Automatic annotation (TrEMBL):
<dbReference type="GO" id="GO:0004565">
    <property type="term" value="F:beta-galactosidase activity"/>
</dbReference>
<dbReference type="InterPro" id="IPR036156">
    <property type="entry name" value="Beta-gal/glucu_dom_sf"/>
</dbReference>
<dbReference type="GO" id="GO:0009341">
    <property type="term" value="C:beta-galactosidase complex"/>
</dbReference>
<dbReference type="GO" id="GO:0005990">
    <property type="term" value="P:lactose catabolic process"/>
</dbReference>
<dbReference type="Pfam" id="PF02836">
    <property type="entry name" value="Glyco_hydro_2_C"/>
</dbReference>
<dbReference type="InterPro" id="IPR050347">
    <property type="entry name" value="Bact_Beta-galactosidase"/>
</dbReference>
<dbReference type="InterPro" id="IPR006103">
    <property type="entry name" value="Glyco_hydro_2_cat"/>
</dbReference>
<feature type="domain" description="Glycosyl hydrolases family 2 sugar binding">
    <location>
        <begin position="53"/>
        <end position="186"/>
    </location>
</feature>
<feature type="domain" description="Glycoside hydrolase family 2 catalytic">
    <location>
        <begin position="287"/>
        <end position="413"/>
    </location>
</feature>
<comment type="subunit">
    <text>Monomer.</text>
</comment>
<dbReference type="InterPro" id="IPR008979">
    <property type="entry name" value="Galactose-bd-like_sf"/>
</dbReference>
<protein>
    <recommendedName>
        <fullName>beta-galactosidase</fullName>
        <ecNumber>3.2.1.23</ecNumber>
    </recommendedName>
</protein>
<dbReference type="InterPro" id="IPR017853">
    <property type="entry name" value="GH"/>
</dbReference>
<dbReference type="InterPro" id="IPR006101">
    <property type="entry name" value="Glyco_hydro_2"/>
</dbReference>
<feature type="signal peptide">
    <location>
        <begin position="1"/>
        <end position="20"/>
    </location>
</feature>
<dbReference type="InterPro" id="IPR011013">
    <property type="entry name" value="Gal_mutarotase_sf_dom"/>
</dbReference>
<comment type="similarity">
    <text>Belongs to the glycosyl hydrolase 2 family.</text>
</comment>
């Protein structure tokens, strides 16, 4: 099939002004998954194979309905060995006469053979994630059509490439998945530049040239086009010319202030500019002090990082700059400052975005657990460096992953990187770094606090479903922050790897529990852990503060930035009187940002209005230098007892009546009929004028003994009291019901957990899941919590409609409905037939809504997402959740079981759960 590309070339030139001295670029493909070009295509096996058709380029052919899907762990030897044959006709602009012309592939999976007009362009390229090119000057025709033929083999003939790239814990794809273009250069040209721009203003560049020229001119300009110093020149003596210059007080690059300059290199011959090359650079210095830490621009760093695959559900490894911006923006929103490329070099536009938005990068030569052989690895290393080396965002190199380290390649990084950035072996003690993955928290105590290497796990808290990430991060980060040898670490991983199955009606497939490891869903859906990380990693740390009567508006804060003074941030506050759907009354204002230098503590003063205690809650928002929210902290002013005093109605015009049978107490008040079991004391039925409310069979103690005994009744004023008798040996747990003339019901349970260590403690009731429509509650939300993931929520009134979502599974509907919710004041249960309300006057009560689906764990069953019996629970303590690689108790103190010590069963030390129930028809 023949395509005319000259109009596209003209369009490109409109945005890239045609200058004789610039490298000219002509795309044969599109530029990403949102911009593709159809090529002729033939797939040898699998879906839609055996016939010529067309395919968009760039793309992975599985996502276009060709070939076979396979995950890296797939053991079937016949999977993933298909080949794709591509054809494309193109024409060369007449202005390219006498130019050197290259064809450039930014990434092709896996072995790639290229022909131009029937002739080989060069040896087959082996390796998927690297930019490679061929000089096709002598193969093309300047007039008429040229035929490009490409054969891509998904499985490499080089077994070391398969070991490094394909036998891995990620999806394996095929195809030309990154852009393809032609570049035209003059016969004398700048081939490559290596740049090192130090924080002290010293600028060094190695300029590689081809052909004879006289000198090279260099000019630096900032983002606004303002020149940094004067243009300077260096004579050319050979094909490698080193340039040295010192600039006064350049604006430095960091993750907080990503100041970029454009370095323009102009090649001069006989007084004329014959070729020009531009690079975005940043002045910054990376230094490693062994047995101490990593310093950027002289400041010791704590890296708050995540691992990131180049991935999108509908296009596989084919992404776009739009996706790169979205990914980096979400990482920055979580207050991250670093990202590790897992487990291969990314698209160039991702590094561009890290440069411009500010994110430290660990760039990685592929090698999941296997390694490239030395000749292949050397070639691919050279391609990676030539493409990536000048990005200021890159502060580390990684040679493979988890044993995928070909040590014969190590010297290349030190020998060839002008910036001499540190080299890491992820999951090894290497080069002064301890980067071991997924160590238990107690291992960290024994080794991290008493070791000598710089501690920087390149993977920790391995997410899966709802486990990991936020669960445990507070404990780990507290240890990391307070350890002088810690340089932070990198979570695994950023987004769920769920791929669109074109062979299964477009369903999203995570390959079971292999792929749902992300903090966000495949289309960037935010899980609860997203907000936990956002709070824990906020560079503004706000100490816990109670809103007591004597509170004077002072918050003690810590500046956890590396380069930003808190007076460069913005602080806003709001007082709210809460109601569902909107704030009935609020007052808001701004606080003067305090002068607190990085790593120092100080006080933030809020000038509160005199009536501040008449509001329900106080909210404090910190924004960064660019006006982006760091986090909003919420502080309840009114306590649960204050709400209970307003909500619970005790008096009424009717009287409380009691009827007894051999087995029950039957109580009526104000149209409410209640039935209690005479021996156990449990609520058996609640009924109003509309009928029975299916809430019953409680309270049943969780990890406690229902030894309520010897119930008696008494009249206390207008109220009826049904209570058990305390006995230190036989009935040390007590239950008391109070029925008010209004029809409201009070329950008070004083109880002792049955064991020294408990997973959770609380009270259970029965309520059919098929009955619930939604809940409205006052407390922390809208996301659920775990014992070891308490942060990231906001205090307020929340309405949650029922859903059966499971984290990391279709339909990625968040927030989930089922689970634990913290700091409940009250909750209204909205059923299909009846509603009812539960209120507490106790603090720190957890509401448990049903039992979420348990997703398939690994064979080790590490996540252990444990829930009580029954359907609805009111808890004094809830369970933790583990990760893919760690059980809950190994993620830190917050993941451990509860400890309750009271062998004497003294009533004054019992846990106290008090609830009020409104079963009326209101």
């Amino acid at each position: 099939m023949k395509y005319s590309i000259l109009p596209f070339f003209c369009l490109v030139m409109m945005f890239f002004p045609l200058r004789a001295q610039q490298t000219e670029k002509l795309y044969l493909s599109g530029t990403g998954n949102d911009d593709t070009v159809k090529w002729d295509f033939f797939c040898t096996e699998g879906m839609n194979s055996g016939k010529w058709t067309t395919i968009p380029v760039p793309s992975n052919w599985e996502l276009q309905g060709f070939g076979k899907y396979n995950y890296g762990f797939n053991k079937e030897t016949n999977k993933g060995k298909e080949q794709g044959l591509y054809k494309y006709n193109f024409q060369i602009p007449t202005a390219w006469k006498d130019k050197k012309i290259n064809i450039v592939f930014e990434g092709s999976m896996t072995d790639t053979e290229v022909k131009i007009n029937g002739k080989s362009a060069g040896e087959t390229h082996k390796g998927s994630f690297y930019v490679f090119k061929y000089d096709i000057t002598n193969l093309i025709k300047l007039e008429g059509d040229n035929l490009l033929e490409v054969k891509v083999s998904k499985h490499s003939v080089n077994q070391s490439v398969n070991e490094a790239e394909r036998k891995a814990d990620f999806w394996i794809f095929g195809g030309i998945f990154r852009p393809v273009y032609l570049e035209a250069l003059p016969q004398t040209y700048i081939d490559r530049v290596q740049i090192d721009a130090k924080a002290n203003g010293v600028f060094t560049a190695n300029v590689f040239t081809s052909g004879l020229a006289d000198k090279i001119n260099i000019q630096l300009t900032n983002a606004k086009g303002k020149k940094l110093g004067n243009e300077f020149s260096t004579k050319i003596a050979s094909n490698l010319t080193q340039v040295n210059q010192e600039f006064k007080s350049p604006a430095l690059w960091s993750s907080e202030f990503p100041n970029l300059y454009t370095a323009t290199f102009t090649l001069i011959k006989n007084g004329k500019a014959i070729h020009q090359l531009t690079k975005k650079i940043g002045f910054r210095t990376v230094e490693v002090e062994k047995r101490d830490g990593v310093y950027v621009n002289g400041v010791k760093m704590k890296f708050k990082g995540v691992n990131r695959h180049s991935f999108y559900p509908s296009s596989g490894r084919t992404t776009s700059k739009r996706i790169s911006i979205a990914d980096v923006s979400l990482m920055k929103e979580m207050n991250m400052n670093a990202v590790r490329m897992s487990h291969y070099p990314p698209d160039g536009h991702f590094l561009d975005v890290c440069d411009s938005l500010g994110l430290f990068v660990m760039d990685e030569l592929a090698g999941w657990h296997g390694t490239y052989d030395t000749p292949t690895g050397t070639k691919l290393y050279q391609e990676m460096m030539a493409n990536d080396e000048n990005h200021p965002s890159i502060v580390f190199w990684a040679n493979g992953n988890e044993g995928g380290h070909n040590r014969e390649l190590d010297h290349l990084f030190a020998d060839n990187d002008l910036q001499k950035r540190p080299l890491i072996h992820p999951w090894e003690v290497f080069n002064g770094f301890e980067t071991t993955h997924y160590r238990e928290f107690n291992y960290g105590i024994g080794n991290y606090d008493h070791g000598h290497n710089i501690l920087m796990p390149t993977e920790f808290l391995h997410g899966m479903w709802d486990g990991g990430h936020g669960a445990g991060i507070e404990d780990y980060w507290n240890a990391m922050w307070n350890n002088p040898l810690s340089a932070g670490g990198f979570l695994w991983d950023f987004a769920d790897q769920a791929v669109v199955r074109t062979d299964k009606n477009g369903e999203l497939d995570t390959d079971g529990n292999h792929g749902p490891d992300g903090i966000v869903g495949p289309y960037h859906e935010k899980e609860g852990s997203f907000y936990t990380i956002k709070e824990v990693w906020s560079p503004v740390f706000v100490e816990k503060q109670e809103m007591t009567a004597g509170f004077d508006g002072s918050f003690f804060v810590e500046n956890r930035y590396a380069f930003t003074n808190l007076n460069q941030c913005t602080f806003e506050w709001k007082l709210k009187k809460l109601q569902l759907g909107a704030d009935a009354v609020f007052k808001a204002g701004k606080a003067d940002a305090p002068n607190i230098k990085p790593l120092e503590k100080g006080k933030l003063q809020i000038n509160l209005p005199t009536d501040w205690r008449t509001f329900d809650a106080f909210y404090l928002t910190a924004k960064d230098f660019y006006g982006k929210e760091l986090f909003t902290w919420s502080f309840p002013i009114a306590l649960p007892k204050d709400d209970a005093d307003k909500i619970v109605v005790k008096t009424g015009s009717s009287k409380v009546s009691l009827k007894e049978s051999a087995t029950t107490y039957q109580v009526s008040a104000n149209g409410i009929d209640l039935t209690f079991h005479k021996t156990t004391g449990l609520l058996q039925q609640a009924k109003n004028a509309k009928g029975v409310i299916p809430f019953s069979n409680g309270p049943v103690l969780q990890e406690g003994v229902n030894n309520f005994k010897n119930f008696t009744t008494k009249v206390d004023g207008d109220n009826l009291v049904i209570s058990s008798k305390f006995d230190k040996k036989e009935s040390y747990n007590t239950l008391e019901w109070t029925i008010y003339p209004s029809g409201w019901l009070k329950m008070q349970v004083k109880y002792f957990p049955s064991a020294y260590f408990t997973t959770f403690v609380g009270l259970n009731f029965s309520y059919p899941e098929t009955e619930i429509k939604s809940v409205v509650y006052k407390g922390n939300g809208p996301y659920r919590v775990w014992k070891n993931r308490m942060k990231g929520t906001e205090f307020g009134i929340w309405k949650k409609d029922y859903n059966d979502s499971a984290t990391g599974e279709p339909s990625w509907q968040y927030p989930e409905f089922k689970g634990y919710y913290s700091n409940m004041y009250w909750c209204e249960f909205i059923g299909k037939t009846q509603n009812f309300k539960v209120v507490t006057d106790r603090e720190d009560i957890f509401l448990r809504l049903f039992t979420p689906k348990k997703s398939k764990d690994t064979e080790y069953d590490n996540m252990s997402p444990t829930f009580p019996i029954g359907d609805i629970s009111f808890m004094n303590g809830i369970s933790a959740i583990g990760t893919k690689t760690q059980k809950p108790e190994t993620t830190g103190p917050m993941g451990m079981k509860h400890v309750f010590y009271d062998f004497d069963k003294e009533p004054s030390r019992a846990l106290d759960m008090t609830l009020y129930f409104d079963f009326s028809t209101k």
